[in-house]
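Purpose: get a first structural picture of the assembly so the mutagenesis plan has something to point at.
Setup: two entries, given in the order below. No constraints added.
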Amino acid sequence: MTNCPNEVVQYMHEYLDGEIAPEQEQVLNEHLATCEECQMLFDELSEAVALLELADPMQAPVGFAEGVMTRLPQSTQQKKKTGVNRWLRKHPMLSAAALFLILMSAALFSSYNTNEQFSVTMQPNLVIEGDTVVVPAGEVIKGDLVVKNGDLRIEGQVDGNVTVIRGEKYMASTAVVTGNIEEIDELFDWLWYKMKTAFKGLTPDKTENQDTE
Amino acid sequence: MDELINKRINEVLKGNQDSFEEIVLLFQNRLYHVCYRMLGSREEAQDIAQEAFVRAYSNLHTFDQKRKFSTWIFRIATNLCIDRIRKKKPDYSLDAQVPGTEGLDMYSQIAAAEDLPEEEVERMETQERVQYEIGRLPEKYRSVITLRYMEELPLQEIADILDLPLGTVKTRVHRGREALRKQIGTM
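Result (structure tokens, whole complex):
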């Protein structure tokens, strides 16, 4: 083999790859006919290939595909595209509640921050002194009283609930309030108060929403 | 074939997970076979072939439908097999001496673990013998030989799967055959 042409081994592989050109195949055949050593090498290579070709094809084990399906991540594809939609469709009640809360809180926060003006529920016999609302002694206010961003001084009587938002409340010894008295100055209290009043008005609406889902 | 697969792929991409099972059924035997030949263990072959399908599913949106799906899924599977084979290799130095022995290094330990005595090899059944010889090939020859002779894939497709130049694939097939010849010859 020492004085064999270098390309003969290359031709053997090209032959085994099925990629040999006819003229090269002829060179190979002629050489193999005269060189015992190269013929042996070629036989051994062919034998190695023959062994590989004996390999039986194999079947995937039973349950292979089901195994893949259980290993799939829980709908990665859908999550990327329609995860939110799917969630909304699956949980209509929660979606309605969530939407309601988002809108409500947005409205509440904005009104908490922007509505800094002094305001009061107008009742005929109230007296307003600057930022202070006074229920004069001897007067009776019929109905609820709400004071925003201002103080309240009660000397007379209120037939209803009293609510003071971000303000001070002074009660004279003569003061009488027949309903609840509430003072609100923290954000949380404010939210709670707003929600209580909002729910009173909105509860029927909300159940309607849920029914239509 | 490609048209059918792309149809199923689009169904999966639209959110129909069940269509993926049909894709799995079309390729499971070939993929499992390649993994088994490369890893030599049925359990590992099943694990890695299933993992390949899971990865394909998760990255299905990146598959270019103008290309062959089989090439893509085979690439995922062979990469996973190669990673697994490399992880199994010891990370300590092969030249280090085995403690308590004289002149024994890790090479002799590995050789002792992988090469069976001649009589035992001769007693093997054909199928066992084929797998034994493939398993003894170095990993870079094992992947090309497996794809070439177990899957009977064209050299160009093997180059696409392994992301290697065609010339490199040819060289590896030649060297792989040469290595096999020597393995069998020493028996």
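Residues 2-88 of chain B form a domain with the Rna Polymerase Sigma Factor; Chain: A fold (CATH 1.10.1740.10).
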